[in-house]
């Protein structure tokens, strides 16, 4: 294993990464770094002194050839970019990435990216954004203040992703599973967003195949999501329909297991196409599918307005058991009790 290389404020993170090459261990000292960086070699570990102690903010714009954030303008800059088919087994940990015009951490076409104890704060588009990648882990991170997802997994059809123990707040979507399958969401706290967790299957023109299948949503605390998204042309979640006051939504998903979650005290702060703390709905009208073969077990769904649950699905194609709620649609759904 190579000896770690230490970088201090005022020194170039990018130069250290490029000179150290594959397998590099880069330690970032305490302080603020006005720069962005592109991790383009496999096996790299980038470690700060701790969230709030090592801070990356916009500065030099990074290397001129850094791959830009998907679907973003050329002048949009992300804090840390992990990109490339040969780039894998990368670990980013113990730092803050703040105030970038793109994503805080952006991984594309990578394998085995781990983001651990990272604070992604006030990055304009995404907090931690993993796209077309496999085997990624986001653990014990805090993501807030992004226009779209705090933590997002996008077009990862065999993701094998683990999103565990994170806190996501003040975003349009706390955690967004967008056309990605095989993901496990465990023990996350999502609050103060427009929607806590959104799992969405729909097909976009020119994008990879869609679908959300074979996922686990377990032991999450989804509460107090009151912001409004999708109502203003340049506002929070501008590209989507209006959503507000939702804890968890399964839209067009297949074989998702939702077990032992607490979904509570979510109240719309604006217009919303969804009307409950927990929502199941079809995406067939916009290129997706109906919700099929999901298991919803031992969840506590309470104190939400206007409803606790809204089940826009063929109930005979799902399994519901031992869930608690006060009011829902349909009102006498099997597997739900007061």
From TrEMBL:
Q: Does the keyword Signal apply?
A: no
InterPro entries named in the record: Beta_helix, PbH1, Pectin_lyas_fold, Pectin_lyase_fold/virulence, SCF-Subunits/Alg-Epimerases
Has the keyword Repeat been applied to this entry? yes
User: Which keywords appear in this protein's UniProt record, sorted alphabetically?
Assistant: Repeat
Entry superkingdom: Bacteria
Residue ranges of every copy of the Right handed beta helix domain listed in the record:
104-277
The name on file for this protein is Right-handed parallel beta-helix repeat-containing protein
In its UniProt entry, the species of origin is given as Streptosporangium longisporum
Taxonomy-wise, where does this protein's organism fall, top ranks first? Bacteria, Bacillati, Actinomycetota, Actinomycetes, Streptosporangiales
């Amino acid at each position: 294993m190579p000896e770690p290389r230490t970088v201090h404020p005022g020194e170039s993170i990018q130069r250290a990464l490029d000179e150290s090459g594959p397998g590099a261990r880069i330690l970032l000292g305490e302080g603020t770094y006005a720069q962005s960086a592109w991790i383009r070699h496999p096996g790299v570990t980038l470690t700060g002194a701790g969230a709030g102690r090592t801070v990356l903010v916009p500065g030099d714009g990074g290397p001129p050839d850094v791959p830009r954030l998907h679907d973003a303008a050329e002048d949009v800059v992300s804090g840390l970019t992990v990109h490339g088919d040969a780039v894998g087994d990368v670990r980013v940990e113990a730092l803050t990435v703040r105030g970038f015009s793109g994503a805080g951490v952006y991984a594309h076409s990578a394998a085995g990216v781990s983001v651990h104890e990272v604070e992604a704060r006030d990055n304009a588009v995404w907090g931690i954004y993993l796209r077309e990648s496999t085997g990624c882990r986001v653990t014990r991170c805090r993501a807030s203040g992004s226009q779209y997802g705090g933590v997002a997994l996008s077009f990862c059809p065999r993701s094998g992703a683990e999103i565990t123990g994170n806190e996501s707040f003040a975003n349009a979507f706390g955690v967004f599973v967008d056309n990605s399958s095989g993901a496990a969401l465990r023990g996350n706290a999502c609050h103060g967003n427009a929607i806590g967790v959104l799992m969405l299957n729909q097909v976009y023109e020119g994008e990879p195949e869609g679908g959300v299948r074979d996922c686990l949503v377990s032991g999450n605390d989804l509460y107090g999501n009151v912001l409004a998204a999708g109502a203003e042309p340049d506002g929070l979640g501008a590209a989507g329909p209006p959503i507000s006051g939702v804890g968890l939504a399964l839209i067009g998903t297949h074989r998702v297991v939702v077990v032992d979650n607490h979904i509570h005290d979510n109240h719309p702060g604006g217009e919303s196409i969804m009307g409950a703390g927990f929502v199941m709905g079809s995406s067939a009208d916009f290129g997706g599918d109906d919700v099929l073969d999901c298991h919803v077990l031992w969840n506590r769904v309470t104190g939400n307005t206007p409803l606790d649950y809204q089940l826009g699905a063929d109930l005979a194609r799902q399994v519901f058991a031992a869930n608690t709620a006060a009011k829902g649609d349909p009102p006498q759904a099997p597997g739900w009790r007061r």
